[in-house]
Amino acid sequence: MASNYSEKYGKQALLVLLPLALLALPVYGAAPSVAELEAEVATLTQQLAEANARLAQAQSRAGEAEKALADTRDVQGTGITLGPVTIGGAIRANYIYGNYEEVGSAPQRGGNGGNVEFDTFRINASLEYDQWRGQLEYRWYDGYNFFHTGWLGYAFDDTSQVEVGITRVPFGPGPYGVSQSWFFDQHYYLGLSDDPDLGVKYLTQWGSWDLAFAYFISSEGNGRGGSADSARYGYDAVKWKSAIEPNGDIVEAPANGYEERNQFNLRAIYQLEDVPVPTDVGVSMQWGELDGKRAEDGHHWALSGHMVNTFDNFTLATQLTRYHFDVDDDSLAELQLLALGAYDFAWPVATQAWVPAVSLSYRIDTPGIPWLNYILPYIEYSNVIKDDNAFNDSELFIVGSAWASGGWYIYSDLAYSNGNLFIGDQDDNYSNIYQGVGDFGVDGNDKWNYRFNLNLGYYY
Q1: b vs e for 421-460, b when ≥16 Cβ sit within 10 Å of the residue's Cβ?
Q2: What pTM was computed for the model?
Q3: What is the number of other CB atoms lying within 10 angstroms of the CB of residue 129?
Q4: Interatomic CA distance for residues 93 and 424, integer angstroms
Q5: What is the DSSP string of 145-180?
Q6: Which DSSP symbol is given to 65?
Q7: Could you report the per-residue pLDDT of 178-211, keeping only the tens digit for each?
Q8: What are the start-end ranges of the H helices in 155-305?
C-alpha cells in the first residue's frame, strides 16, 4: 500500500509543494536560482520518501503478531477455484506413543511401539467476490462429524469486516491463543481459544488499535456423534448424560448441564511502535448466559491480558486469564464443577480458576533444502490454577516442532501433563468424591503422564 501511495501521490505532492515554495519567496530581493530550487525540491522529495517509508513500516506492523501466531495453523493447499469460490481441504493422521492403559475397546498406546490412528478429514470452501467474504468448513473424525466454520462476511475497506454465522470467538492474542503446537494450551480445553460460536463479529483497525466486537446467540451446536451434546470442535458448556452420585460414582442420567446463550465479546490489541522489540499488548473480555437444563440458569465471564513480542524470527506470546462459571447444577455445582464438551466427549472442569500460558517459537526458513519450506520449533507451558484448594492444578508442558513442505504440515510434539485428558490415562477409581472427576476439574489423581504425538497433515 505504501508503494502505491508513493507512485500515486508523490508527483502530485511535488506539484503542490513547488508552487507553495515559489509563493514563499521574499517579496524583495533576488529570486532564488534554478540550482537552489532544485536543491529544495530534492530535500522535499527525500522527506516525502522518508514519510512513505514510515507509513509502510506502520502498515506492515498491523496485525503482525496475530499473523505470527496464525501462520502455523492457517495452512492452505492449492485448492480448486470455481469463480469466486475456492474449494480445498485436508487429511491428517497421528502416530501416538505414551502413558495409555487399555480401557475397554480403546487402543493400548503405552507399548508395542505405539499406534497410528486417523485424525481428521475436512473440506473447506472460501468466497471472495467484490467486498463479500465467506468461509465454510466441515470435519469428519472417527465416529463423529460437525461444522467447524460457516460464515458470510462483508469487507467495508482494507481494515474493517463483519462476519455472520459460525465464526471464531475473538478472545486472546491470536486465533489459537498463544500456542503453536498441535495440542494447543490449556485455554483451548476451557473454551477460551479457537472456539467457534454462532453469531456476528465486527473487526476493525483504528490507528494502532486492532478491535473486535462480537455477539453470539449460542454455541455452534452439536454435530453427529455418540454423545449427548459434544460432537463439536470448540469446547462449550454442554448437556451430558452423566451425573456424580454422593459416593463419587459417575453414572448415566437424563441429560443435564447447560447451553451457552447471549455471549458478548470485546478484544482490543494495541501495537507498540518505535520500540526495539515489536510488541502487541491486548485485553479480551467475555460475558454470557448459561441456559440450565435441569437447574437454574447461570452465567459466565472471562477476562484476559495478553502480549506478543516478535524479534527477528522469534515469537514470544504470553497470556493470563481469569474465568468464572456461575452455576447452580444439581450435582456438579456442589463440587464447583461444570461439564464442558468437544470431540464427542464431555467432562467436568473447575468453575473458577486462573490460567497462565506462555509460548516461545523460532521460525527457521530453509531455502537450501528443496523439499522443506521451514521449521518452527517451540516450547510451551500452561496451567489451570483452581480456586478450590481441594483441587489439584492442571499443568501442560510441550516441546516440539512444526515442519512445512508444500501441502504437507507436520507436528512433532512431546507433551507432559498432570491434568489433560489427551496426554495420558487416568485412574477410574471414584471411591472418593475428590478422586478422578476430570483432569480439568478436581484432578484428584494428580498423575503426570507423557505423550509423543506425530501429526501428519496434507492440505489440498
Answers
A1: bbbbbbeeebeebbbbbbbbbbbbbebebebebbbbbbbe
A2: 0.83
A3: 10
A4: 18
A5: EEEEEEEEEEESSSSEEEEEEEEE---SSSTTTT--
A6: H
A7: 999 999 999 999 999 999 999 999 999 999 999 9
A8: 186-189
